[in-house]
Amino acid sequence: MRTLIVLTLLAVLVMAATCYESRESMESDEYLYPFLNRRRASDFIQADTRLRAITQERIRERSKAHQEHQRELCEDYYPCEMYAFRHGYAAAYKHYFGRRRTK
């Protein structure tokens, strides 16, 4: 019984120490207004850098190297990918997507 009282008091002390809200946390605006409006939220990010990054990414997607395009085609086709693990992507592409044989 005595240990139960001691453990209960210890639990109450730990809870009081960890759940205490200091005066400093009440002083910030975040306590009263946890959400920012759109204008303040995007003030620190420059629009030019975002647009430039998006444009550069689109340019890179359009102008892929020939080998990269072949590799992506091969990765999408499972037998070609398995063949590529053993013989390389160039050989796998040539094996599966090279010249089509017609009768």
Describe this structure in words.
By secondary structure, this protein is mostly helical. Helices cover 75% and strands 0% of the residues. It is built from eight helices and no strands. Helix 6 (66-76) packs across helix 8.
Quick recap:
With 103 residues, the chain is an all-alpha fold. Helix content is 75%, strand content 0%.
Q: Would you list the SSEs in sequence order as H and E?
A: HHHHHHHH
Net shape = elongated
| Tally of DSSP β-strands | 0
N- to C-terminal distance:
93 Å
What is the CA-based Rg, rounded?
Answer: 31 Å
Our estimate of the beta-strand percent is: under 5%
Major sheet characteristics: none
Mean pLDDT value: 77
Percent helix:
over 70%
Features:
about 100 residues, mainly alpha, 8 helices, about 75% helix
Question: How is the secondary structure organized here?
Answer:
Blueprint (H helix, E strand, L loop, with lengths): L1 H18 L3 H5 L1 H4 L5 H4 L5 H16 L3 H11 L1 H10 L1 H9 L6
Helix pairs in contact: 6-8, 7-8
